[in-house]
Amino acid sequence: MDYPSAASVSVRLTAGGSRLGPFTSNGQILLPNGAPTVIAVAALDAGGAHASGSLKSVAGGFLGRLTLANGTLGEHEALEQDFAKFFGKRAATIFTTGYQANLGMIGALCGPGDVVMLDAESHASICDATRLSGAEVVWVQHNSPANLAKKLGRLPKLQRNRLVVVEGLYSIRGDVAPLREIVEVCRQYGAYILVDEAHSFGIYGERGLGWSEEQGVLDQVDFLVGTFSKTLGGVGGF
Fold first, then answer.
1. What one-character DSSP code corresponds to residue 91?
2. Tell me, what CATH number does 119's domain have?
3. Where does a domain end: 31, 58, 87?
4. How much is the pTM?
5. In a domain? residue 63
């Protein structure tokens, strides 16, 4: 087959008045400039969601060139603003991978003296992030709001931050979380909730925003994590 040449790179950077071609991507055959563009834009437009210019351009040609190798550019900041509006949240942060998104979020939210409540079927990135944070880990029976309530009820009141981490769609079992009930338990016991939508983003919800939207609790979820490597067919996380 004929592979695209360097001349076909569709993404250009401007620095010091000069137009530059980025060659720091891992996509040596420039696939992000071809088929994944269609996949990404179709995913973002599905369900009535209309992607802005930054969402389309970054999803189509920039996901393989994120901040780790290139620094933070205007395109990254525009994408973060669009994702915040997309999910109806105050702010968003773009990470190099979905794995890094979990490490960054959980590590920033919790530390020694805090408590993280983890579902027994949690993804490895969630387990690693919690271990590295130094927070106390409390395991909860899979998809059991009753067990979550029981264990939250045992914690000293208002003495430590407590974060409940669940997934919208679990990759291990292929089942979904009872988010309505879990959110209700979190509110009852004053716990924050983080939902990893890596496997449900683009699949569930009227606008494809994930299982939180499908369950009608998107506005009640404190933190969301996702990846660009599933539905969007790119590289990165949020």
1. -
2. 3.40.640.10
3. 87
4. 0.77
5. yes
Handedness of CA 127, 130, 132, 138 (dihedral sign): negative
Its domain, for residue 27, covers: 6-87
List the one residue out of 123, 67, 141, 132 whose CA is nearest residue 104. 132
Kindly report, residue by residue over 78-126, the tens digit of the pLDDT: 888 998 998 999 999 988 889 999 999 999 999 999 999 999 999 999 9
- Closest residue by Cα to residue 63 from 102, 104, 91, 22: 22
Please report whether residue 65 resides in a domain. Answer: yes
Inter-residue contact 133 to 107 (CB < 8 Å): yes
Contact indicator for 42, 71 with CB cutoff of 8 Å: no
3-state secondary structure (DSSP) of residue 86:
helix
- For residue 1, being part of any structural domain is answered with no
Kindly compute the dihedral angle of the four CA atoms of residues 104, 106, 108, 110, in this order, to the nearest 10 degrees: -160
